[in-house]
Amino acid sequence: MYRLLNRRRRTVAALVTAVVSGSVLAAVPASAAIGGPGLGDPYFPDDGNSGYDVSHYDVRISYDPAHTDRLDGDTTVTARALTRLDRFSLDLKGFTVASVKVNGAPAKAFSRAGAHELVVTPARPVAKGSTFEVRVEYAGRPDPEGWHTLETGGANVAGEPHSATSWYPSNDHPSDKATFALTATVPDGWTAIGNGLPGPESVKDGRRTFRWFENRPMATYLSTVAIDRFTVHRGRTAAGTPVITAYSPDAVIDAEAEAQQTEILDFLAAKFGPYPFSSAGAIVVGASKDPGNGPLALETQSRPTYGSMLFDASMVHENTHQWFGDSVSFKDWRDGCVAECFAQYAGQLWEEHKGADLDQGYYRSEVEEYRDDPSFWSVKLYDPGPGKELDGALYFKGSLMLHALRRTVGDEAFFRTLRTWTRDHAYGNASFRQFETLAAKVSGKDLKGFFAAWADGTVIPPHKYLYPGTLAR
User: Which of 146, 180, 385, 433 has its CA 20 to 30 A from that of 199?
Assistant: First the structure.
């Protein structure tokens, strides 16, 4: 996620490891009830649901911008039961649920619990190891935590760590990734943009239906839909990946910035490995009716969401997330550095590509500015603490750490580590601890002290870790 942080008024970008075709699911904590709410994330213990592993979402919505208080939804969740399920939960915030069916049969019972639980009792228990479908029909006002209405009359979805529950029932935790199909029906003249590649459109009774499909596993907070009277541009990267860029009527269309988007994607692919998804591009939305609600930009999978306009720093950050955070997602919210540290440092790589001296013009000047500011160094990069999962330290301190690591192990080992990481954990989940292990293995160096000082430390690192290699002084 790219944010505006108030430091020198600068703009900043703010145990299962096996990858399967559908998703990667974190181990269910012993303390969690089977089939119950919550996967036991240390920061968000009620997020997600135990007892099953989602492989696919088929989300069908109908929305009329003239009636912003109502969204009609019909979502089918396909999952595999990890144990016998006499009862299970989905995450859904708000809405009136009209019906729930499990494998085509009406549920024996369903009810609401807690802040966002839809508790389902199937007519017959779901057998362990079986694949099952849950179809939920619902309607009502989307929750503004993730669903944002625009001044143009349109709407879009963006939010981290939560947004999915504002518009469809889900297993809302990054450790349970799934493929995603979206069918969105809106009045003719409006356009719906989603993740992945577009499917066929159809028109009936003055309403147009748009279809989108993301064929790679996706964390729920990365799913999106945007509805507006969009201007849509299409192109391709050098590798042939389709690039679809949509602009709200009040967004700035900058041809030079749009051309730079493909240049950035090609640059990042050269650094991190092949672009991981079937499509790329951007959703550029205009002013929100609630400007304080929602991030400036978010790495919605395959097609990041931006506010008002495209510019290079934000495009570099959000598109880096396609590798770091989207394709390789974190296991739980302690691991935000897996996404934000790398996305922020990519901005420095882009500046270097344009001719900047990172040692002097970036690293040393930053360290000197914050040397005597204990608050800058006090937040840990791994497990920063509840409420700090997206703390500015992951952007600023995390970026400095990666440059120091690069100078510690050398360019060849550093970039080989990044490419190995994105290849070996593609479409899955991994922790920052695993990155530490990989960096040591690839470089052949003992990095325990380095990561203890940078990732786990709460004070400025010792001189030998602060000024390694060409940073020595």
Answer: 146
29 vs 12: CA distance, rounded Å: 36
Residue bearing tokens 């550093």: 414
> In b/e form, how buried is each residue of 342-352, taking b as 16+ CB within 10 angstroms?
bbbbbbbbbbe
pTM for this predicted structure? 0.92
Angle (deg, nearest 10), helices 396-409 and 337-353: 70
4 pLDDT above the threshold of 90: no
C-alpha to C-alpha distances, 110 to 92, 119, 230, nearest whole angstrom: 12, 5, 38
**320-354 residue pLDDT tens:** 999 999 999 999 999 999 999 999 999 999 999 99
In 3D, which of 112, 78, 85 has the Cα closest to residue 97? 112
Angle at 110 between CA 224 and CA 128, to 5 degrees: 80
Helices and strands counted in the chain (H then E) = 10, 23
The CA distance from 71 to 164, in Å, is: 14
Per-residue pLDDT tens over the stretch 203-260: 999 999 999 999 999 999 999 999 999 999 999 999 999 999 999 999 999 999 999 9
- Cβ burial, residue 154 (10 Å; 0-12/13-18/19+): buried
> CA torsion angle for 465, 466, 470, 473 (degrees, to 10)?
-110
CA distance 96 to 106: 16
Residues β-bridged to residue 307: 285
**Nearest-angstrom CA–CA distance, 182 and 194:** 7
